[in-house]
Design a protein that fits this description.
Number of helices: 2
Strand order of the largest sheet: 4-5-1-6-7
Mean pLDDT: 97
Structural class: alpha+beta
Strand content: 35-45%
Low-confidence stretches: none
Length: 87
């Protein structure tokens, strides 16, 4: 299937609330050692501590829920078809 959305996670700004993990256990995991969250199977720019992942339509809803539930707004989703930032 076509990957039409991009998740961008500013891990440096994560406070470890882990509400995103509750919204989507498939994509978001808690790192007990660092007390932060990680986006699974992502590209990780370690210098900026930004994680990115392109996802399919079927994975949008749970990741949208994760993004809107984040108390520090560090999860962003862009529609790759028109480059529009949704959150």
């Amino acid at each position: 299937m076509e990957k039409i959305y991009k998740i961008e996670f500013d891990r440096a700004g994560c406070i470890g609330a882990a509400i995103c993990c509750a919204a989507s256990r498939k994509f978001w995991i808690f790192d007990d050692h660092e007390q932060k969250v990680d986006l699974t199977n992502c590209n990780h720019n370690k210098e900026k501590d930004i994680q990115t992942l392109d996802i399919e339509e079927k994975d949008f809803a749970e990741n949208y829920d994760a993004a809107v539930s984040c108390p520090v707004n560090v999860i962003h989703i862009t529609d790759l078809r028109n480059d529009k930032k949704l959150i």
